[in-house]
Design brief:
Length: about 375
């Protein structure tokens, strides 16, 4: 009898959550298309207490859209992405993706761990980028609707087999998205491996606070709580140096429009064709300290970033070139989106002086990153 009552209350709660007939937070699930191998993909809409929506797909555990108000309450979808699963499978640029096992580049696709050299697929000139061609962004994840602290939440899990893309160890990864009442999208990551391996996960969401497809991001005023970057060579691999940025076009301690200095003839801006660099955060892994923000003056929309990670890749969409059409049918041109990718430093496995990205057998990798939206 007790069990029956429990089952009935569970069914009632699920019905409320899924049918959306309640007021307040809810999650709905719909079909998002099919992959080439015939697998069905889903899309989940998380609605918070205020009625604002975030959409996430289980294909690559991607953020598909975030709709937030401007200072007058006008909504816009502030993330770049495609209309359906087919778009993402054929597309490029890692829009909204979870990236792993190793976000950003590993030089020559090689690293040595416990005296064994591992070789990864090269998918970016002479380097390995974002976990390789079949990295986590291109995998179908399991999705489970949960509620976390009374907020709508989606828990995505993926099992990465031993030696997938050349990385040692069976790895189990969990990414949980939680959409809070104050428009903060919290991303909690966990990973374990049955062999020593490396792990550096991130989310590659591109923001345009004017709304996706509405031009470039050069007017966005950016703040990054960092005193140094890890400069890169011409293949965008860190040289190993930690370069102080005070007085350079990379100094974003005071919020500055991206376009103000991006055209300067500063060596790292020329190498990156704009900003495409890992900033060494001052936040000491403290998720309660503001790590970065962007403010778009016309709409007043603002995104704040908080993270447990030691670095943020600030990327100004320098590889976008108008050949990708977004979900509303508009092309994504040069610098039409910006990314704040919370991460360990690029190529850490080949730079012992960088914070380690090693995940030891039996240990747990954890990360929390929050993107919080306001309008001023
Ligand atoms: C960024 C990286 C860029 C570029 C981009 C994807 O994380 O820093 O150099 O590869 O991803 O197009």
């Amino acid at each position: 009898m007790k069990n029956l009552i429990r089952l009935a209350s569970f069914l009632l709660l699920s019905a409320i959550l899924f049918t959306g007939c309640s007021k307040g937070p809810k999650i709905t699930k719909e079909n998002f298309g099919k992959l080439k191998d015939g697998k069905e993909v889903s899309i989940f809409t998380l609605v918070n207490e205020k009625g604002f929506k975030v959409r996430i797909t289980n294909y690559g555990a991607k953020i598909v859209s975030i709709e937030v108000p401007d200072r007058n309450g006008k909504l816009a979808d502030v993330t770049l992405g495609y209309k359906n699963a087919e778009g993402y499978e054929a597309g490029d640029h890692y829009f909204g993706s979870i990236v792993g096992r190793y976000a950003n580049r590993i030089a020559k696709g090689k690293f040595t761990l416990d005296s064994v050299e591992y070789k990864l697929a090269l998918n970016n000139g002479s380097n390995s980028l974002h976990g390789g061609p079949t990295g986590f962004h291109s995998q179908l994840w399991n999705a489970e609707v949960i509620t976390k602290d009374n907020y709508p939440s989606l828990k995505l899990t993926y099992h990465s087999p031993d030696m997938q893309e050349g990385y040692p160890g069976n790895m189990d990864v969990t990414v949980t998205y939680t959409w809070t009442a104050d428009n903060a999208l919290k991303i909690d990551y966990e990973a374990t491996s049955d062999k020593n391996t490396v792990c550096n996960l991130t989310n590659h969401v591109y923001f345009n606070l004017k709304g996706e497809g509405n031009g470039d991001i050069l007017d966005h005023q950016v703040m990054i709580n960092a005193d140094a970057i890890t400069p890169v060579d011409t293949t965008l691999i860190p040289t190993g140096e930690l370069r102080p940025i005070k007085g350079t076009p990379f100094d974003f301690l005071t919020a500055t429009a991206i376009g103000k200095r991006i055209g300067e003839k500063y060596d790292q801006l020329l190498t990156g064709n704009g900003y495409d660099h890992n900033f060494v955060l001052n936040t000491k892994n403290d998720v309660s300290v503001l790590a970065a923000s962007a403010y778009e003056p016309a709409s007043g929309r603002t995104v704040e970033v908080y993270t447990t990670e030691p670095g943020i890749q600030f990327y100004t969409g320098n590889f976008l070139k108008g050949d990708q059409t977004g979900k509303a049918g508009k092309p994504y041109n040069f610098r039409n989106g910006l990314c704040f990718e919370a991460q360990k430093f690029p190529d850490s496995p080949n730079h012992p002086a960088f914070p380690t990205a090693e995940l030891k057998k039996g240990d747990k990798y954890t990360q929390t990153t929050i993107y919080k939206f306001t309008a001023k």
